[in-house]
């Protein structure tokens, strides 16, 4: 299934001063360069709330809750009042209001949504985060506010939803949009954007594996997908410059029960507000 639309939004580039620093460090010490890259990799950029998200920000009930597994606090958004709840999970450097167009559609269909600012994102305190923290937040939200009927995740949020289902998130159906897939591919792409050598990237991966005590591939979306049995819709744009569309095909091939929707011309973020995409995923969830 495919959907056509207009122009795409370009991917976010790593600022030039960071790339220059990375190259200088790499010339001095590969280990220092790898540690620097690791720090940049886990440091999201906090963007101000755009005007299109103000309605959801204003009309949602907001509260901070503690995530015991992380000893961190996050901002939670309650949008609408219904016993039928949908969990929304934003991507890297995103916010809990980023899926506002989808949230509005869910409200019209009689559902309420619960979303959150992951650690170091939006209104949540902190400077660093990673996917394991996204997953911990999802599982804690299920304990506090669940059960959720559906879960919808964008980009890293999509990867986190699949990994959370693997680790105990209970939903009837899920939708992942512009999801990344293989962790090493994501890190290699990041190292390439920094202008660093692949050897530095490999050392960064070893540092991550030492920190978490397991291989990074454990969290790859296609690996998590193999443990997911609920119906999943995989949505991706073939012009996505942040995450290649091959990720969607690969994830889809490892899911037991999935539908694949490929769009054109929407890129990585515009896809979240596209009316045809929202109609398609709503029909899938409510069927």
TrEMBL record:
Gene3D superfamilies registered for this protein in UniProt: alpha/beta hydrolase
Molecular function terms from GO: hydrolase activity
Parts of the chain that traverse the membrane: none
InterPro entries documented for this protein: AB_hydrolase, AB_hydrolase_fold, Hydrolase_4, Pept_S33_TAP-like_C
Serine aminopeptidase S33 domain span: 81-178
SUPFAM superfamilies for this protein: alpha/beta-Hydrolases
Domain Peptidase S33 tripeptidyl aminopeptidase-like C-terminal residues, every copy: 227-286
Pfam families from the UniProt entry: Abhydrolase_4, Hydrolase_4
Keyword terms, alphabetized: Hydrolase
Protein name: Alpha/beta hydrolase
Organism, scientific name: Flavobacterium alkalisoli
Phylogenetic classification of the source organism: Bacteria, Pseudomonadati, Bacteroidota, Flavobacteriia, Flavobacteriales
């Amino acid at each position: 299934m495919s959907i056509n639309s207009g122009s795409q939004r370009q991917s976010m580039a790593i600022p030039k001063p960071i790339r220059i620093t990375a190259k200088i460090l790499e010339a001095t010490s590969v280990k220092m360069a790898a540690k620097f890259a690791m720090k940049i990799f886990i440091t999201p950029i906090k963007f101000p709330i755009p005007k299109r998200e103000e309605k959801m920000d204003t009309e949602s009930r907001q509260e901070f809750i503690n995530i015991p597994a992380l000893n961190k606090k996050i901002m939670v958004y309650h949008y609408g009042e219904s016993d039928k709840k949908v969990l929304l999970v934003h991507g890297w450097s995103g916010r809990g209001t980023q899926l506002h167009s989808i949230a509005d559609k869910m409200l019209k269909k009689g559902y309420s949504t619960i979303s959150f600012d992951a650690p170091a994102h939006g209104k949540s305190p902190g400077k660093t985060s990673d996917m394991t923290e996204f997953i911990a937040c999802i599982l804690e939200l299920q304990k506090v506010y669940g059960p959720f009927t559906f879960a919808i995740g964008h980009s890293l949020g999509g990867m986190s939803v699949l990994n959370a289902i693997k680790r105990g998130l209970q939903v009837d159906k899920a939708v992942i949009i512009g999801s990344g897939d293989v962790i090493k591919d994501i890190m290699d792409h990041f190292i390439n954007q920094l202008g660093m050598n692949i050897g530095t990237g490999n050392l960064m991966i070893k540092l991550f594996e030492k920190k978490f005590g397991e291989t990074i591939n454990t969290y790859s979306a296609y690996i998590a997908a193999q443990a997911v049995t609920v119906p999943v819709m995989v949505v991706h744009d073939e012009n996505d410059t942040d995450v290649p569309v091959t990720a969607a095909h690969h994830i889809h091939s490892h899911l037991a029960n999935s539908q694949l929707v490929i769009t054109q011309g929407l890129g990585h973020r515009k896809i979240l507000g596209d009316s045809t995409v929202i109609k398609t995923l709503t029909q899938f969830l409510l069927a």
